[in-house]
Write a structure and sequence with these properties.
With 188 residues, this protein is an all-alpha fold. The chain contains eight helices and two strands. The chain has a two-stranded antiparallel sheet. Helix 1 crosses helix 4. The longest helix is centred in the first third of the chain and has 21 residues.
Length: 188
C-alpha cells in the first residue's frame, strides 16, 4: 500500500502531466508540454526542431502507456495511483528499472539542449518551465539532486532521483525535489 507521502508525490506528478487540468491524462497533455518547451526555445511550428521535439514528447506518452500496461487513450488520477501502488511502489524492481531507464534517457534527450549527456542548471530550469513548475524552486531542487556537486545532473543522478521520488517514503529524500515543491512538503 502506498503511503500518504507517496500518494502526495504521485498525485503532484500526475497533476503536472495533466497539462490542461481536465483530470484525465492523455497524449495531448504530453504534446502540450512539448509545445510549451518549443515556445520557451522559440522554435517555429514549421521547423524540423519543432517536429522532433513534439515526436519526443509523443514518445514520452507512448512510454507512459507502455509502462502502465494500459492501452486506452487516457488515465484518471485514481487509475494512475492504483497502477503506481501495484507496479511502481510495490512492483518488480526489474520492470521499474527498465522503464525508468528509458524515461531518464527520454528526459535527457528532450532537455539536454547542448547534447553533452548532462542537465545544466539552465536545462533543468527549462524542465521546470516546460512542466509549469514554479521555477523559484528549481535552483534548490537542482542542488539537492546534484549529488556530487559538479554543477550538472548526470544520467545516474537523475535515475536515483526518480527512484527516490517514485519509491521512497523518506520525506527528506533528495529525489522528492525532482518536480519541485509539492503540497505536503516542507519548503526549505
Amino acid at each position: 500500500m502506498i503511503t500518504d507521502l507517496q500518494r502526495n508525490k504521485l498525485a503532484h506528478y500526475y497533476n503536472l502531466l495533466d497539462f490542461n487540468g481536465d483530470g484525465v491524462l492523455e497524449r495531448k497533455d504530453f504534446i502540450s508540454i512539448g509545445e510549451n518547451l518549443a515556445t520557451l526555445w522559440v522554435l517555429s511550428e514549421d521547423s524540423d526542431e519543432y517536429d522532433q521535439l513534439i515526436a519526443k514528447c509523443s514518445k514520452l506518452w507512448s512510454g507512459f502507456k507502455s509502462f502502465t500496461g494500459e492501452y486506452s487513450d487516457h488515465a484518471s488520477l485514481e487509475e494512475w495511483l492504483t497502477f503506481c501502488d501495484s507496479n511502481i511502489v510495490n512492483g518488480s524492481d526489474e520492470l521499474y528499472d527498465l522503464h525508468v531507464e528509458s524515461f531518464v534517457s527520454d528526459i535527457l534527450d528532450i532537455f539536454d539542449e547542448n547534447e553533452d549527456g548532462f542537465l545544466s542548471v539552465d536545462e533543468f530550469t527549462d524542465l521546470f518551465m516546460a512542466y509549469r513548475i514554479d521555477i523559484k524552486y528549481s535552483a534548490k531542487a537542482f542542488t539537492k539532486l546534484d549529488i556530487n556537486n559538479d554543477g550538472q545532473l548526470s544520467h545516474d543522478e537523475l535515475r536515483k532521483a526518480f527512484k527516490q521520488f517514485f519509491k521512497s517514503s523518506d520525506p527528506n529524500a533528495p529525489g522528492n525535489w525532482i518536480f519541485g515543491f509539492w503540497e505536503g512538503r516542507e519548503r526549505w
